[in-house]
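Annex B. Sample input.
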Amino acid sequence: MTDLGFDGKVAIITGAGGGLGKQHALMMAARGALIVVNDLGGSVDGSGSDKGAAQLVVDEITAAGGDAVANTDSVATPEGGESIVKTAVDAYGKVDIVINNAGILRDKSFHNMGPDLVDPVLDVHLRGAFNVTGPAWKLMREQGYGRIVSTSSAAGIFGNFGQANYGAAKMGLVGFTNVLAVEGAKYNVKANAIAPLAFTRMTEDLLGPLGEKLQPELVSPLVTYLSHESCDSTGRVYSVGGGRVAEVFIAECQGYTSNELTPESLRDNWDTVTDQTGYEVPAAIAEETAMFLKALKD
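Annex B, continued. Sample output.
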């Protein structure tokens, strides 16, 4: 079997000045991808900036024989997203891959969480994906090719104390991915999401000794594969960490149907509503609607 190469493919990787993003950039550059290393260089909570973080990764890539350029714009604004994509086009003439990886943390229990903790997290994680992917999407449609990988989290999919802001943003990226997969199908643009568990500066206070087994470079093989032209996956979510990769999916039970539905009938048939036997995994809203039509016809 031949190795998966990226010769001539142009990849934008946000938040690539360290942690997961840096490892994605190093792995894909080593396989021939032309990389835009985007990183504002801020702290974990998003404050401050350091324009050297992105350049250091570029220097490491070029020293190893790869090709990369730095970008230090913020993903949190539409103007920043446009500028990031412009950097790719100016340097390499196109965009083939977008990896939405930039992130910040502002954790606090929900009863103590105000707009100062919510808005910046949504701006970077969720709106940031819109801001960068939007202008790249237009180019991908025109060229009939694209790969998008967004970074979700188990904090959104399954929940985690003190992360209502982060979890909402990360689950929003699952919906974002699902719709892009549907809209991109006829243009050969595929979109997937990952829910990584890795030891980075964002998680070092959370993982403890387990962090030794969760090195960020063990997430990059999945991102690299999902970014490759040979990968047919789209509209999917994958949990990844420590060398383990597993698909995460949203399923729907067969449920309970009655044309005389009442609160009491639900109470009396709640076990049927929640019975997971024979669940289905709709690939898009049309398939979920088909489940309704089938149940209502029976």
